[in-house]
Every structure is written in C-alpha cells, then in structure tokens.
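Example complex used in Figure S2.
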Amino acid sequence: MSVPTDLGAAVGVAFWGLAVVAVAAGVAVFRVDSMARATYALAVSFVAVGAALLLVGLDYVGLVVVLMMVMEMAVMGVYMVMLMGMNPALMPMSMVHSGRRAAVLAAGTFVVLAAGALLVPWPERRGAPAPDTVAALGTALMESTMLVMLVVSPVMVATIVAGVALAVPRGRYDRLGDDLRRRPADDPQPGGVGR
Amino acid sequence: MTLEAVLVVAAALVAVGLYGALSQQVVVMVMMGLELMLNGVILAAGAVWWFLAPDPTGQVLLLVVVAAMTVEMAMGFAVATLLHRSRGTDMTDMAADLRR
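Predicted assembly (295 residues):
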C-alpha cells in the first residue's frame, strides 16, 4: 500500500517559514555583537526546528527539543555572563580565528551535504506512522528498544559524576591526600563540631 | 515539503554550526556551534523518519541524539569551568598548553 507523504501546501509554507527562521537565527548566533543575543538566537533556532519536528508528527521529540533547549540556553546565558566578565548585552565583539578558512570549509560542507540530499535516489517510504506517535514511542521504549533507555540512563549518571569531578575546585584527593588517609582533612575552612 | 528540502535546510544548519565550531575563540561559543550542528542532525533525522520509515524506532534514535546533546552541554560547561579555574580564561587559543 502506498502512503502519501505530501503534507499539503499549508504545512509546506509553515515549514519554509520555520526553515528560514532556523537558519537565519543560526547565522545570527555568530554575527551579533552580544553573547546574550547569540544565546537567544540559538534558542530561536532550536524552537524553529522543534516546531518543524511537530509538523512531521514527532510530537514528543519536538516538544522535548523546544523545552530542553530553552532551558539549556538559559544556562548558557548564565555561563556567558559568568565567564565573560563583562556586560554581555553591551560589548561589541568579534572573537574569531581563521574566520575565512572556517567559512570556506563550512560552505564546502554545505555543498557536499546538499548535493548528497538532492542527488541520492531516496527509497520509497516503508510503513506508515502510528496514529498516536507519542504512544508508539512510549511503547517502543518500554518494549522493543528498552535497552536504549537502559544504556542512556547510566550514561546520564556518568555525565553528572564526570561533570562534578571536572568542575569541583577541590576533590577528595586534595582534601584527604593521595591515599585518602589524611586526618583531619586539609580544608581551608575547617567545619564540623569541635574542629 | 519534501525530504530533499528538509535535508538541504539541515545541511545549512550543520554548515553554519561547523563555521562556528571552527572559528569561535570562546569555549561557550564553540559549544554553540556544536549545538547548531546537532540541531541540523535532529532535523535531518526527523525528516528521514517521516519520509522513509516512520516506525517508532526512528523516534528512539532521535531521543538518543537529544541525550547526546545533553551530555555534550554538561561536559562542555564542566570543561569551561575547569579551564577558567586553571587558566583564568575562556578562550580556546589560551588552552593550547593543555596538550602538554
């Protein structure tokens, strides 16, 4: 049974609008003179891509992309203010190296990828989407592809541990010595009762 | 709206992100370039899912990409914090001596 993949003219118009917003906001990330604005631009690009995913029935993933990226860009904005040490909304900036070489490489990458997208004889669609894609995804995660979730979960925990291990100013080896036997611990600010 | 059209838009996002990842000096801006590249990957994967094989497994793959994005951001922020503490900078150029 052949399944129509044409989503209609209105969806096409909506997609192209979102596509222009996504790419234009992506370009703006590296063109604006403010890190705060760059963060907002990247958030806009992600929201546009999330909305485009909603157009093709990826309800859950599209919503996750929008929600996660808005929060992630908020964190990124905080990091920019912390690390830059200046008012990020006011300072003009151009902090690039090898800009011309990077632009040539990026343009070449786009030409290769776009040529691949346009020239590859894509196969016919196999199967039809489930009536409720969110329910189908939930069922798949709890049944046939549960191993994926079982792997992703410890990876996330490992990320938390590794992130803290990298970012912490003084770890347990700094406090307790190489063999962890130093007593009392070498803390710059002693704490606890009676110390 | 065809698969080819969506893939061309995704290619544009990947290319812009690649430019940022290669050219930016600030670590957080490099991360933004990588994020933009992953943005294009998500869009392309979503289109391939819809136009070629719209079964739930493709959605699971997309969730894995989103999870990879989260890991990249978390580790990137941790490295940026470590770099700032050890070198007092947030620029990639001044982190070259980490190679020693």
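The helical segments of chain B are 3-23, 27-51, 56-87. DSSP finds three helices and no strands in chain B.
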